[in-house]
Amino acid sequence: MYDVVVVGAGPAGSMTAKTAAEKGLEVLLLERELEVGVPDKCGEFLPSLQEMRRLAPDVSDLEGLFDPPDFCIVNRTKYVKFVFPNEVEIAVPFQGLVIERKLFDKHLANEAARAGADVAPLTRVVDLLEGGRGVKAKNTDGAIDIPAKTVACADGAYSLIARRAGLPVSRDPLDYGIGYQYEMVNVDHDPYCVDMYLGEDIAPGAYAWIIPKGDDVANVGTGVRPPYMKE
């Protein structure tokens, strides 16, 4: 029996697995996809470690998430520009990192494995065992039960495991967003500036973005709140 089963190998899950393994616990990290970090569901923009220390001075252990290795970083930005519906633009100095999420997530999962955690891809958790003492899952061999003393939910905002455990999970559609993003080339844009576009005509309830990944490559996308989709 594992001490801890972590459901979901995103950044939160991998960091949880790594920390628990470093404490000497027997840890299993489960990921439903074949490849950790794929598909990417992120604009791939992070505050730099310097900015996070300024924004959250009382939080320790920021290095693991906000100081990724160089091979994960594709660009370093210097500004965030907010573009308002009345065409007012405000550029704010802000040191940021643009990363390749598929590399970053793999790096964190590898760090968990190096700390001693077992990592199991292509394993989809479908329920908790009775009493929450582990999980029911499906992998390439079929249905399996994985007993554990503790289950950590890191399976997303609308966590199946949290719901199965009776933990509060919001069902308010305003608490969720729907996004569309493409990695585009031939983008004529300042590579040091992240653009955030606000306004009901562009992204009702959320924002649109241009996040430069290099001289002419950028993540371009938009998000909306579900109640405003018809607009």
UniProtKB/TrEMBL annotation:
GO terms for molecular function: oxidoreductase activity, acting on the CH-CH group of donors, NAD or NADP as acceptor. Residues 175-226 form the Digeranylgeranylglycerophospholipid reductase catalytic domain. Keywords: Flavoprotein, Lipid biosynthesis, Lipid metabolism, Oxidoreductase, Phospholipid biosynthesis, Phospholipid metabolism. Residues 2-157 form the FAD/NAD(P)-binding domain. GO terms for biological process: phospholipid biosynthetic process. It holds the Pfam family Pyr_redox_2. Gene3D superfamilies: FAD/NAD(P)-binding domain. PANTHER family: DIGERANYLGERANYLGLYCEROPHOSPHOLIPID REDUCTASE (PTHR42685:SF18), GERANYLGERANYL DIPHOSPHATE REDUCTASE (PTHR42685). This is FAD-binding domain-containing protein. It comes from marine sediment metagenome.
